Amino acid sequence: MYSSIGGSMYAEIIEPSCATVPGPLLRHSITIALHAFSPWLPSSEKILAAEKYVTELDFYGEFRQRSNAKFLNCAAHELPMSRSTQKTKFSRILLVNPWIYDFSAFDLWIKPLGLLYVGGYLRQHGYDVHLIDCLDRHNPQLLRLQGRTGPQLKAYGTGKFFRRVIKTPEVLRQFPYPYRCYGLPEEIFCGMLAHRPRPDAILVTSMMTYWYPAVFRAIELLKQHFPHVPIILGGVYPSLCPGHAVCHSGADYVIPGQATDRLITLLDQLTGQIRKKSLSRLNIDHITPAYDLYEHLDYAGILSSLGCPFRCSYCASQRLCPNFVQREPEAVLSTIQDLFEQRSVRNFAFYDDALLVNFHAHLQPILEQLIQRNVSCCFHTPNGLHAKYINDESAELLFQAGFKTLRISLETIDPTRQKETGGKVTNNEFEHAVRALQKAGFQGDQIGVYLFIGLPGQQYEETEATIRYVHNLGLLVNLCEFSPIPGTREWTRLERAGSISANDDPLLHNNSIFLYLRQRYGFEQVQSLRNLIRALNATIRSRTETTQAIAE
């Protein structure tokens, strides 16, 4: 999932019997029960958990003996009192979306949508919000550096990030690939910080667990420019690896999972805000994501739902957002229409993990209204659609509403593995979905199918057979290199087999290297499959171009 607002909780805060500690600062003693997230903790933290270590969180102090960060996961009323009682109007909050450090990256409709929703939520509660997105390809200083008036765009607003080779982390140096920073050069980032007013607090988001070095670097530079400004880290990485984030990130506060109300309470304490009304919980139907913080938009990410009702063995959606919640159709339409009319956005990517679930009550009215209102946009589904929900009716509406890029999840054609990984699709259901999409008018080069290589127990021959199966149906193949995500069933299976450890550096979760490191795939094997896919996909694209030329 590209951008999750939510996530499950990994620690439990318990009120102690003694709530005061002598000293010049007001302290709030709490007990952290680490049992819930101990599987993800470094060994040093596991020792603390085993000893039922009790630590104090001083609101202005340290995470005692282990980290400078404070793990914020308590109810709003349990937060310590602020030293300040003076009300500050319009406190300035800086939102930061860091770079990507990886072997490869591409802007396939990537926007920090969770951070933008948090920005909208903060505005509702009186905060003045600003944004630095290190992945913004329209940054004016970046374009001047490149000698361009605009970024080079590929299909539907996608494109390549600016990139520079950087030093490869020690744990990854055995792999002969250039390690790169994708996004703004550091000198541009630092220049933007130097010319900005001092914020009252900084919120840093994060995505993949193995992208954490870029997050750490952003926090380091932020502390250099604003040494006394509290930095709060959230997003996917601390939700899946909270112990690692607390111990190593350098953030002053780490917030895993769904904690927007706690975030507001923390910010109120840090900035001296006094509220006469109780906090409202985040409801994305009533919040406008802060897309106005971008000067230019080639595309926008859209969420019509949070979470997923399926429980696939390799997916962390349930941990990031335990409950499946669908937005009101009119709220989704309003978001799309506002961006269409006010910002001239013509490409929208749905970030949903389960877009087609409850189709008649949810997506169908959205599609029908898009058609009726003549919202002439291109829609894309970078997250895989569930094939079992695609039929003649849904396929026709998707086509008429302007969907241009479809991704469908198949993973494998092996029936046993399909059941083991979650049972969300069968080969018959998949073939029925493909026929419906083709009947509706979708061309082969508009439909990409996600397949796995490297699932535990999956053989090379199984992946090759799945590739040829998809090609024979006239579709594009999108190969996904498996890597385990903390907390999933596949993670547990590999951990029990001794293939991975909770103490492993999250850098080793990287799908670019996990196949070779743990699954013992040969480079030549994987490269031969990539070459096969490249040739087969070229055939599909050529066939589509020929068909279109004949039709014209």
Automatic annotation (TrEMBL):
Domain called Radical SAM core: residue spans: 294-524
Record-annotated B12-binding domain positions: 97-277
Keywords tagged on the record: Iron, Iron-sulfur, Metal-binding, S-adenosyl-L-methionine
Transmembrane in keyword set: no
Cellular component per GO, a single term: cytosol
Cofactor (UniProt): [4Fe-4S] cluster
InterPro entries to which the protein is assigned, alphabetical: BchE-like, Cobalamin-bd, Cobalamin-bd_sf, Elp3/MiaA/NifB-like_rSAM, Methyltransferase_Class_B, rSAM, rSAM_horseshoe, rSAM_sf
Cytoplasm found in the keyword field: no
A GO molecular-function annotation: metal ion binding
PANTHER family the UniProt entry points to: ANAEROBIC MAGNESIUM-PROTOPORPHYRIN IX MONOMETHYL ESTER CYCLASE-RELATED, PUTATIVE-RELATED
Protein name: Radical SAM protein
